[in-house]
Amino acid sequence: MILARWRVPLLAAIGVALVLAVVVGVLLLRSGAPIAQFMVTVCIAGLLWLAAVALVRRGDLPRWMVWFVVGIALTMRAMTLLASPLLSTDVYRYVWDGRVQMAGVNPYRYLPAAPELAFLRDGTVYPNINRADYAPTIYPPAAEGIFALAAVAAPGVFGMKLVMLAFDVLALGALAWLLHVAGRQPAELLIYAWLPLPVWEFAGSAHVDAAAAGLIALALLAASRGRSVWTGILLALAALTKFLPAVVLPAFWRRNDWRLPLAFGTTVLVLYIPYLSAGRQVLGFLGGYVSEEGVENGHGLFLLQLLGSVTVLPSWAGPAYIVVALALLAVLAGRFAFSVPMPAAAGPRVLLAARQAAILGAVVLVVISPHYPWYFAWLAPLACLAPIPSILWMLAAAPLLAHGAVETPIVPGAVYIPAGLLALRDLRRLPMFPHAIRSA
To answer: Is the pTM above the cut of 0.90?
Structure first.
């Protein structure tokens, strides 16, 4: 009873504290302070966000509270938008790829350091491109299309930040509508809106994962209205911004629906056609990146890394791990797509799709254990509708990965081990199947 009376003041205080945490973080990064100090602010912000999620989920709040939620969210994003990219240089590659396309060159054809592109180099963007002398672009066609459009509509680094912020705001708008469709209270938008991860990685560092998040939110909206073709198109666009979101397709598709996979496949083909002149290079640096990040040999995979810290693993451990992981994903995807009927009502349908998509996305992220926090950000819209504790923890703790050494399991362990323990609890207590969704 006492907590119920204090929920609104507590949420207001947390919102203000989250804004202050962003202010402190920006100032620390600009001053060149030790990165550990910045990480302290991010950890505090993550814990505050988890507290806010717990409070907002405890019962109804005044309807006006959603405007406070949006106000705090936009304030945090405005501060990171106006700051220079401080945590990653990926945005410079985005701007470069857009510039290359505006010059009529296939971005998959040449390295940024290639003499054929010397005429495009400047003193601002080119010197900040990572892997410029050995890695062609890794980004799939939908991402390249976004970079090209940004080069026309909003050129430069700040323009790219505005484009990614637009996708972020698109996700906010779609989620606000989806919460209404699902019969959830509007203030639960803070599950996405106050999460520190998109604040820093979308408006701040302009990662293209913002586009994946916005497109997934739109796919959920299309699915809630029974629009199979649009759902397939939007999922294909999301998948061809970062590849990983392709794993959620079985959460939206059922075996009697031929339109969704047809729309998905057709969209993928249409998006690749303009770039096929690059031949086999059309996949860019994907293979090299997989090897560089230690996925190919297993050295960069957290679960194998953890086992390797206590025992000597055989040479076949990496390939065996990948086979087992793919089999697990296949079983899970098949269970969702072939054994779980999709509810007819819009609210239960979107909740089921979001929950199953969140589970598939979380499993694939744990399996490959990315070394960068923004790889988790596209899960945030799904978690807003399916606030599974294990996934919420990963989203809150993911910023720790920004500066954790790949060679030691300590930092990724702080992300994945608590998530794994929570997942064991989730398996017993959280609904994945229709009968539970109806009572949720």
So the answer is: yes
